[in-house]
Specification:
This protein is an all-alpha fold. Helix content is 63%, strand content 2%. It contains eight helices and two strands, in the order ββαααααααα. The longest helix is centred in the middle third of the chain and has 35 residues, at 104-138.
Length: 246
């Protein structure tokens, strides 16, 4: 139906997706470039658009860290970089799998997978934090003696809050006065998550300046920066500003 000016009153749609263009347009690219197709397996979301770049970078991160750890003498502290790098990999999957969803059915499935992967990532992060705290207490190690230490604490607290808010919005929306009110918080949860991911990458990168890395793992700063930039390039162009409330 058209108005008196001849301009259609309905929202334009992408004929391939049969969804409003605004719901399928990423920050960079054309409508539908990073949107899940009908009947497409949800796993394909991981490599849609620039997602493959982020996947390659995350796998390179895990391969670099794990190879360095297992080629060095194994100690209790070794669990920390193993657990944290694995957590980053799993967390990335939780982001990539949900980003391309745009229909109600896709979002429901995506949210469940997102929640499950987040739970696994959170468990991995907890293991990493517990190990490093136990190691410091056992050896009377100093806290907050590096940039990585400060960023790690901030990131850990932020992750805990992010997960608590996400879980309660999804599982017990009554906490927010009902599902309608809970949905109003989603955009803030998403924005917080994207900022948190940047902080997490900064924390990972800052680890190369710790004594353990300089004396044992010897991961290169330039390599961690390149990996982090590639993950940013893979994730952020796929953001749909409409999902952020803009």
């Amino acid at each position: 139906m058209a108005s008196a000016t001849g301009i259609p009153q309905h929202t334009p749609t992408d004929p391939d997706l049969e969804a409003p263009v605004g719901d399928t347009e990423p920050l960079l690219g054309r409508p539908g470039d990073a949107s899940q197709r009908d009947e497409a397996p949800i796993l394909k979301n991981l490599i849609l658009g620039t997602g493959g770049i982020a996947e390659a970078a995350a796998l390179l991160l895990v391969a670099s860290v794990w190879a360095s750890v297992f080629l060095s003498p194994l100690i209790l502290f070794s669990v920390h970089p193993l657990a944290q790098s694995f957590g980053v990999l799993v967390l990335l999957q939780s982001i990539l799998v949900l980003q391309p969803t745009h229909t109600g059915a896709q979002k429901q499935v995506g949210q469940k997978v997102h929640a499950g992967l987040n739970l696994l990532a959170f468990a991995s992060f907890v293991v990493g934090v517990v190990v490093i705290e136990y190691n410091k207490i056992k050896n009377n190690g100093a806290h907050f003696h590096s940039v990585h230490g400060y960023l790690g604490v901030i990131t850990s607290i932020w992750i805990l809050v992010q997960y608590l808010v996400g879980f309660t919005m999804f599982a017990v929306p009554a906490v927010y006065g009902g599902e309608a009110n809970a949905k109003k918080i989603w955009k803030y949860h998403r924005i917080s998550g994207y900022v948190l991911f940047l902080l997490m990458l900064a924390t990972v990168t800052s680890a190369v300046k710790t004594e353990y890395n300089e004396n044992v793992l010897r991961l290169k700063l330039w390599a961690m920066i390149v990996i982090s930039v590639l993950m940013v390039v893979g994730v952020y162009p796929r953001i749909k500003k409409q999902k952020l409330g803009f």
